[in-house]
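Design a sequence for this backbone.
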């Protein structure tokens, strides 16, 4: 789905008919993004509506030079779905050591910083793959569609990225 520039500029100029057209065109993509996160159809519908409202309210901030309209709306939809899921889940206290072992906080922060340092030294494409998978938690299928790569190519690239990070961290820490 390629959003035509004319339609985007009509929405920017607050044309409600253009918004309706955009909703029809974008709805399948938004559903595809939020459904795996929310699962409940009522929550999915609410997330679709919230996404379109957010698009309507912030369309003027869309910058074509920073990425495609589809990527922009995908990030909005994903963030809304994750926020809804967080609000819906009851907060449960847990013992950090279950997730992080007995490492002190400073060691954990240092490890995260080391990983980010390695990622920042990678190619732009590798960085995009890493963040889409591990920060935005997109599926391999979504990454494949967004980046125009085969599913197998995405999986192979992510495998190489993980190995590269592991090797560089082992070299750094001996």
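Sequence:
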């Amino acid at each position: 789905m390629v959003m035509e520039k004319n339609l985007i500029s009509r929405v920017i100029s607050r044309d409600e008919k253009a918004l309706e057209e955009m909703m029809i065109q974008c709805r399948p993509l938004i559903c595809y993004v939020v459904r795996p996160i929310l699962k409940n159809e009522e929550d999915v519908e609410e997330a679709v509506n919230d996404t379109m409202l957010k698009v309507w309210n912030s369309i003027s901030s869309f910058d074509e030079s920073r990425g495609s309209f589809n990527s922009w709306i995908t990030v909005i939809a994903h963030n809304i779905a994750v926020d809804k899921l967080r609000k819906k889940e009851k907060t449960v206290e847990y013992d950090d050591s279950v997730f992080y072992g007995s490492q002190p906080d400073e060691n954990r922060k240092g490890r995260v910083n080391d990983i980010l340092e390695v990622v920042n030294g990678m190619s732009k494409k590798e960085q995009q793959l890493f963040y889409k998978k591990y920060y935005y938690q997109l599926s391999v299928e979504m990454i494949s569609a967004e980046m125009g790569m085969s599913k197998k190519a995405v999986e192979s690239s992510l495998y190489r990225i993980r190995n590269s990070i592991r090797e560089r961290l082992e070299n750094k820490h001996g």
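The longest helix spans residues 16-38.
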